[in-house]
Amino acid sequence: MTTLFWFVVLVGILIFAHEGGHFTFAKLFRVKVLTFSLGFGTPIRLGRFKLSFKPGETEYRIAWFPIGGFVRMVGDDPTEEVPPEDLPRAFSSQKVWKRFLIIFGGPLFSICLALPIFFFYNLLQDRAAAAQVGSLVAGSPAAQAGLRPGDKVLEVDGRRVATWGELDDAVQDGNGQAVRLLVERRGQRLQVVVKPYHELSEDQLELLGKRWDLGLRHERQGNLVGVVAESPAWRAGLRTWDRLLAIGGVPVLEWLDVEELLGHLGPGPVVLTVLREVALEAGAVKIPVPVLLELLLLVPAKDGALPQYLAGVAGTGLEAADLYIKDVSPGLPAQKSGIVKGDKLLAIDGRPIKCWEQFSRAVAGSAGRSLRLDVRHGRQVRTIEFVPEVITQKNEFRQETRKLGLGVVYQRNLVAGRMIPRPHRLQHALVASFTDTGNVIIMNTMGFVRIFQGRVKASEAIGGPIMIADIAAKTARKGWREFVQMMAFLSVLLGMLNLLPIPILDGGHIMFLAIEAVRRKPVSIKTRLAAGYVGFALLAALMIFAFSNDIQRYWFSSF
Q1: In this structure, is residue 513 part of a structural domain?
Q2: What is the C-alpha to C-alpha distance for residues 445 and 536, in angstroms, rounded to an integer?
């Protein structure tokens, strides 16, 4: 019932906006509107109560079949005879430009619905990510230029920036050229020149076109730990994927805190506060339960070179969990090469790797060639060779995603970066409403292009009402922000689809109006009817295709 509720809310708003566009322009030009209907079929009737009312010449109703709606005007059906008294107000009697606006009003309102959605979405966010570096991608242009976590970016090519969004916009505006950053570090200012590289797109779709990346991240490296076998941390009882909360009673919020606190301790015992997730068995079900532990770590003396296996902070064998393997997918190169859960990735093609994104970028850029990977298992390091395979996975909406990979699962070890009050919130919301809507238009356009290019399967991209209902319910459970964002995306998509030059759709009617404007006479009724049958057949085929995709996605895939 929850899924049905959110589906009705979503589709109801989308249909109301679209049909409201046709209705508004029809009323503006004094065209006689007979029916404004949300849904098809007869009005919903509950006993004596009917969801229909007619305060004047127009009947307003909500019908049983919710997939769509319509605005019926006098003279919009070329096969019906218009009463003489209604001729001046008939749709067919209006000038071409008026009929164009009435038809175009539906897609226009659908696309423009995204503007107020994004405006209020941004206006209600009173906090923004600060333009302060939380972490860096190892080996990235920013890392090579000497930037560090905690650096505050003040300017990009002389342009003042306060938020992370402004920093990213300034980098994108550079179109891949080197940018000059004015950075504040511990009260001192310095200038750094950084040339960005292409932003990593593991699926290679690039729906917003090529984007540029300095290798700066707002999120900070988190406090999930990896533990080397037989190290002091291991003997103290620490295990990989524990979350380190405090060292000697001092809270730990990010990995920099761990390095700073343990790095300044002398040899001897220190109490660590750890949060560990354990699985309690309740019959056939395992329930994850967080357990708070206090463990005693003996920090070794720094009296010379330590064995390689004791790599980690202050020789304790304690390190960030970023490159530890959380799980291995069956039948893929990782399992075939003997990689198991708990192993750690060390280097690829002889180059040390420090973060997961660095590894992903190397794999994505391999172009199918063999890669050499150093992996630590326990205290032993071994080298394997593998050829990245295209890995197909299903996202939360049961759509397939594809990317080159090894077949290992990792756990994100990031925590939120510094937030500040949103500066110039009203101005930001106004500008963002247009830029966000523009980005959605670009993404939808590129989505169509990728389908025609064969880079996205139509069976995965196209869905019917079952898929829409599933998306509505899942985004609603995540919160109102995700739900309204998805609503804006689908509303723009609805408007763009209706502009396709297919008879029976708004775009098909606009095509006939364009022909009429050029020929200076309407297209014959016979031609319009024949085109309407073709358009109906195409639309029916598309609906059948979408329904079959839904059945395949939500029924057969579960067996």
Answers
A1: yes
A2: 24
Residue 303's pLDDT band, with cuts at 50, 70 and 90, is low
Coil, strand or helix: which one is 136? strand
Q: In 389-524, which ranges are continuous DSSP H helix?
A: 425-453, 458-461, 465-478, 480-498, 506-519
CB-count exposure of residue 290 (10 Å: 0-12, 13-18, 19+): exposed
Query: Does some domain include residue 262?
Result: yes
Closest-CA residue to 506 (of 103, 191, 186) = 103
Least confident of 67-81, 126-140, 446-460, 518-532: 446-460
Last residue of a domain, one of 320, 346, 369: 320
Inter-residue contact 292 to 278 (CB < 8 Å): no
Least confident of 167-176, 388-397, 446-455: 388-397
Among 218, 239, 272, residue at a domain's last position: 218
- In this structure, the answer to whether residues 208 and 244 fall within a common structural domain is no
Contacts of 435 (CB under 8 A, 6+ apart): none
Co-location of 113 and 138 in the same domain: no
Give 230-287 pLDDT, tens digit per residue: 889 999 999 999 999 999 999 999 999 998 898 888 888 999 999 998 888 777 777 8
Asked if residue 551 belongs to a domain, the reply is: yes
Q: Is 435's pLDDT higher than 50?
A: yes
Are the beta carbons of 335 and 328 closer than 8 angstroms? yes
The answer to whether residues 147 and 91 belong to one domain is no
Proportion of the chain in helix, strand, coil states, percent, rounded to 5:
40, 30, 30
- The three-state secondary structure class of 174 is coil
Tokens of 299: 């920090």
Vertex 291: Cα angle to 288 and 293 (nearest 5): 150
pLDDT digits (tens, 9 = 90+) for 163-210: 999 999 999 999 999 999 999 999 899 999 999 998 877 666 777 778
Domain tally, the chain: 4
Beta strands 220-221 and 414-415 are antiparallel
Q: At what angle do helices 96-112 and 506-519 cross, to 10 degrees?
A: 150
Q: What is the CB neighbour count within 10 angstroms for residue 199?
A: 17
Q: Which of 536, 436, 540 has the alpha carbon at shortest distance from 486?
A: 436
Give a yes or no: residue 133 inside a domain: yes
Question: Confidence band (pLDDT; 50, 70, 90) for 559?
Answer: very low
Structural domain for 256, as ranges:
225-320
Q: Which residues are marked as active site?
A: 19
pTM over 0.90: no
- Helices marked H in 141-283 — which ranges? 141-144, 164-173, 232-235, 255-263
Looking at the structure, do residues 201 and 232 belong to the same domain, yes or no? no
Return the exposure string of 307-333: e unless at least 16 CB atoms fall within 10 Å of the residue's CB, then b: eebbbbbbbbbbbbbbbbbeebeeebb
CB 524, CB 441: distance < 8 Å: no
| 348-354-356 Cα angle (round to 5) | 80
